[in-house]
Amino acid sequence: MAANNAQEISEADIDPSVAPLFQPIRIKSLELKNRIVMPAMGHGKARGGVLGPSFHRYYQMRAEAGTSLLIGEASAIGDPVAPVEPDQTHFHSLWPLTDWKQIAKVVHEAGAKIIPQLWHVGMIRKARSWPFYHLPSRGPSGLYITPTDGTPMKEPVQQSEPMTQADIDDVIAIYGQGAEDAKRLGFDGLEIHAAHGYLIDQFFWHVTNRRTDGYGGKTLRERSRFAAEVVKECRRRTGPDFPIFFRYSQWKIQDYGARLAETPQELAGLVETLVDAGVDCFHASTRRFWEPEFEGSDMNLAGWTKKISGLPTITVGSISLDKELVPYTIRRQVKDEKAKLTTITNLNRLMEMFNRGDFDMIGVGRAMLSNPDWTRLVRAGRLDMLQAYDADSLAKSTDFPDLAAPPSRGH
Ligand SMILES: Cc1cc2nc3c(=O)[nH]c(=O)nc-3n(C[C@H](O)[C@H](O)[C@H](O)COP(=O)(O)O)c2cc1C
């Protein structure tokens, strides 16, 4: 396995072409030893909301390989209707938080930093989902859209009442509680998941936000109010120095072609509102990092976000892979999903954009599922040792028979 071979690589080996990625960076109280980040990747294997020991090793391996920052997989905040399904990890309550505290400790001992990703899925949760099937899902206008299977977007369906002011206040307070818990448990910051069509993004997106009160409106700036209030509450509960990362995207799991902003001016409405609210770092989620975001410039979304905000940004999307992320609804059926490793060309382009200052950090997702030691191998220029990503990589990444949970006794 590549992991064993990689141990033979000397720490002194550093490929000059990627050396700039190995400079430290500071974001408020967070000191990162390099620019390589593992983005949040949900496994859907958290029985009762708890990840457990195989995940401790999963995170530990990426930390030991020299990755500077690990973002925990999307974790439901303490609203019963925050997750899509019960086996997604939680960031509330004694058992899941006890487990997350241990994960943070393991990662710190291995020399990396870690932040949780606070998540509310909003209207992506289907009505009458177990176990709280009597509770309606929450969203700005109560509209449900089926996640895409690669075909054009499905029509929105009215599934519940729009959130009331009391609902909005409750959910903002619950995000704040998650932020406070992140700090109390020893995390190095937090990331707010406002991307991919989940609750906060449902407020951003005109298709799912049809409100006529102060949380809706014709402009993206107006529809950014809910996100700004979430950020302010997280700041209020954690103090001025605790780093707040904010992940957002144009694309949605309901429609991969969706766009919140057609122009840099529209994007500024969102970004400036969030800078004022207290964000410290933006994580601009794209599926292909090399794609220009707006006409007339070859900068990507992270580049534009940095230019507008003046803050550090993370870019992401098919780094060291030659196939972009496919909808999760069809992922399991894609038998030939082998994103073969590339090509130096992909990393060359990445370094060109990094070296001219478009973004400050890079997020490596699927390639780090199939290569726990991605950072060590790339640092040494050993791209030849990287394993391809395929549809089994997710399951394999936490498959440690010696740490397997005992079989469930059922409910
Ligand atoms: C299995 C899987 C689970 C994911 N889960 C999350 C998640 O929990 N939160 C999130 O913001 N993005 C999630 N993503 C998106 C990744 O963070 C990343 O943005 C995406 O995979 C693109 O990067 P890549 O091309 O390097 O894989 C997930 C992606 C995959 C493949």
Overall morphology: globular
Q: Structural class, from helix and strand content?
A: alpha/beta
- The strand count comes to 12
Any idea of the CATH class? Alpha Beta
| Radius of gyration based on Cα positions | 20 Å
Q: Treating each run of at least 4 consecutive H or I residues as one helix, how many helices?
A: 14
User: What would the average pLDDT be, to the nearest integer?
Assistant: 92
CATH architecture: Alpha-Beta Barrel
Task: List the defining traits of the structure above.
two-stranded antiparallel ribbon, single chain, alpha/beta, binds flavin mononucleotide, 12 strands, eight-stranded parallel beta barrel, 411 residues
